[in-house]
Amino acid sequence: MTQTTLCVAPTCGGDGDPRQAADGLLICLPCSNRLRRDLGAAPALHRWLGEHVMPGTSGGDRVSGGRVEAPVPARLDVLCMINDGAVAYRGDDDDQVGPPSIPSTLKNWTWLICEHRGLVYPATAGVAELAAFLARHVEWAASREWIVDFMEEIGALRRAAHGLAPWTVHVQELVGPCPGCDLRALIRTAGEEWIECDATVGGCGGLWSLAYYNDHVSEILKGKAIS
Ligand SMILES: [Zn+2]
Ligand SMILES: [Zn+2]
After folding, report:
1. Cα of 205 to ligand 2 centre, how many Å?
2. The organism sits in which domain of life (predicted)?
3. 13 CA to middle of ligand 2, Å?
4. Which of 79, 94, 199, 213 satisfies CB 3.0 to 4.6 Å to 14 for a cystine?
């Protein structure tokens, strides 16, 4: 009996059908690329947020930091993301919780994977080491039923950080067609080694490494040179 497994990632395929899952895994290659991308982005986002604890021109929640001296405003939402988040920060509305903590999210998933795999939990690891540890276990995690939760929590870190950050995220549009759907909808976020097919303009939401994209483009150019 042949069994076809569709990728279980909720965003897979954009508005179209989900892609075929990779052999023996619950998700497809572009979706596991997305998870690697989001893990890889975590250390830089964590560092960058750390330099923007003080509010600039953009809004945000502020907390008074000094008692005797003049109050020092700091962005609570940014602090929430860069520190361990034992207690979720709540805004005026009781249902509104603060953004997720980058270190706590990475630690929780590292702990879970160590438990499952019988590994020693890296207790002193920082954000960069935790992200690298998790990236090494993406393929294994991609066959577990909790892979969707893992992807969503890690993806939420990148989204929340980009949403909070008082910087402009530079997105470059690429001219080459998508290796997945052939549309010219590919974008690259500055500083990242991944190319994404933009689902907001009808793309398939696929994600490819820069090297893969470059190979794809040179194959097309080679084909054009021959014909
Ligand atoms: Zn997928
Ligand atoms: Zn595409």
Report:
1. 6
2. Bacteria
3. 8
4. 199
